Every structure is written in structure tokens, then in C-alpha cells.
Amino acid sequence: MDEARAWLEKLHALEFDRTIKIMNVCGGHERSITHAGLRGALPKWIELVPGPGCPVCVCPEEDVYQAIQLALQDKVILVAFGDMLRVPVNVKKGEVRSLAEAQAAGADVRPIASPLDARKIAQENPDRPVVFFAAGFETTTAPVAAMLAEGIPDNLSILLSGRLTWPAVAMLLDSGAPGFDALVAPGHVSTVMGPEEWTFVVDRHEIPAAVAGFGTESLLASFYSVLRQLKSGERFLDNCYREVAHPGGNPTGRRLLDETLAVVDANWRGIGIIPNSGYALKPAFAKHDARLLFPDHADPERRRAGEMPPGCDCAQVVLGKIYPNQCRIYGKACTPRNPVGPCMVSDEGACRIWWAGGVRVAVDA
CA–CA separation, 160 vs 139, rounded Å? Predict the structure, then answer.
């Protein structure tokens, strides 16, 4: 607490004559910021902008739809991380719109907490096909890669919707209108891929950047670092999570990702195709690729660049263009009890985080 107070005093001692926008990429960062009340503790001229750090939020609608159809029509055991069960898709009224609704309709849908749970369920049900709907960024995709490398039961296949974090930030920066002055890079991703993955922010775009952990002290230190860089004119990537995020990341995790998965162009819901931003199983693992085993449900008519439901502004929230409570349906049609968009589903979704933090009223964008 004393360290956090010291960082706050340093931040308040800084002076800027304009608003400074700092994007925090990670949904875990946004949760820490909101639950600790940091926005209210910081100087008024600092704006913290939630960024594209929620894999549930950007998982393409067609992938969720395919998972639902696999569970309903092919009678597989469909397993997925818990948040994915409530992500809605756009279907006609009365049709099943989420994995949770598919479960209620009789499909065998099971939430899991780890890829090892998927392997265990497959081992316990050798006569039934088991599909693991695996959505996530590098941190959760690396254990999937490890499971593949170790070997999995013949009846287990993967519907992979893995994404890399940095290409979305690169897309924002390359657009020429990123909407932020400095970047706080995700700590957990950096523990796997290495902090240096984010040097492009500084080297190519001359924007201050710092890697942060999830404690208040680390976050405040990262804010101070990027603001000092803006003040002094220096530009460098500062690692404020050195106890965990080491140069080179996790060599074993990176090796397993490279051995089992290919980097491909990928669709982000509401955003569209981002080059080199997704993972796909390599041909050596084709017999475990649900996209090849069950191709009939990859309906091309559903590939609508990840279209959001009418009125839903999740894509704008994910890209940091608006704040959650500036969405047209925030707190109205869309609440955690009845989510319309994916950002209100996940604990890493900015809308859900802001709602849990007490922001219940929408404002005009």
C-alpha cells in the first residue's frame, strides 16, 4: 500500500497541459484498474482506455455458431472455457443462441478450466467424440499446444479460436488514428512471448510503452513510466513486471506453439480479418482438427466479418474507440444477466468489468 501511495504521489506531481490517453491492452489490467478504483485516484488529465484484451469478445461469431451446431447436431461432448458458454450469436428469435442454451436444450456441453480437463473427459468417454472449443490469447493457447505435443486421445479434437495479441495493437497504430498516447502491454502474454514482442510500439511508432503486472503497484509504475517518457521525449519499452516477464518469455511455451500451431490471418468479431493474428493446427495434427473433421457446420454464410448484434458497439469498445458505457445498449438491452454483446459476458470484457465496478448508466458517446 505504501508503494502504491508513493507511485500515486509521483503521478500527481507530473503536469501536462492536455489529456493523456493510456491504453491498457489486457482485460486483466482493466479488471484490476476498475476494482481498485484507479481511475478515481489518478490525476484528471489521465484517461485509461480499455483495449483489445478479451479473447471471448473477439472470438468470431461463426466459431461460436459452429460449436453450438456441433453440440446440437453431431451429438459430441462439447467442452469450452466457462465464459464461452454464454457468448451469444445472431440467430432468429427462438433459435439456440449460445452454448448455454444448447446445453439447456439437451446438448452435452461442459465448462472446463484447463485443457487437461478436456483430455480427461475424452479418456473417460472413449466411445464418444469430444470437441474442445479453445478460444484464447497466447497465454491460454500455449497449454493447448503443450497438450497436443504430449499426445491426446483419438476421440478428442480441437476447434481452435486462438489469437495473438500484438497484431490488433499494430493494426490500431498502423491506422494512423490509434486513439491513445501511450501503451501498457499485457503482463501474462509477455511471460509467454517475451516483453520484447512489444518493442515495435516504440521502434516503429515512437509511442511510449511499458509491460505491467496485475498488482496496483506494477500498474501505477507503468503509468508513471510512459508519462515520464512523454515528458522527457525518451522512448523505450519499460518492463514493470520483471519478476515474471523475462526476456525471451517462456522458451518451452514458445517452442510448443511453433511445433504444433501455424500463425494465420484471422477474423476478429466486429473488426474483421487481421493479418497473422490467429493460430491454426499444423497439418501433422489434422486428425485432431475439428474444422477438418466436421466441415459441414463451418457455414460460409455466417462469415460476416464478425458482425455484432444490432445496436451493439462491442467492436468499438474493444478497439478503444469508445468507453463501455458509451455503447448504445449498455445497461439497457445489454446487461450481464442478458448479454447482447460478448463484452458483457466475460470477466475480461470491459463492459462486464465496468458493470461489476458499479457503472450502471449509459452516457452519450
Answer: 14
Low-confidence ranges of the chain (pLDDT < 70): 1, 298-306, 365
**Residues, the chain:** 365
Domains of the chain, first to last: 2-53+166-240 (3.40.50.11750), 56-164+250-302 (3.40.50.11740), 314-356 (no CATH)
Best CA proximity match to 87, nearest among 110, 107, 109, 57: 57
What is the reported pLDDT for 32?
A: 96
**pLDDT of res. 302:** 62
Sheet holding 130-136, edge to edge: 109-112, 77-81, 130-136, 156-162
Largest CA distance in the chain: 67
- Let me know: does 346 contact 57? Beta carbons within 8 Å: yes
pLDDT at 305: 47
pTM score above 0.70:
yes
Q: Could you read off the pLDDT of 285-344 as tens digits, one per residue? A: 999 999 999 987 766 666 654 578 889 999 999 999 999 999 999 999 999 999 999 999
pLDDT of residue 298: 67
The answer to whether 321 and 97 are in contact (CB under 8 A) is: no
- Least Cα distance to 281 among 258, 249, 251 occurs for 258
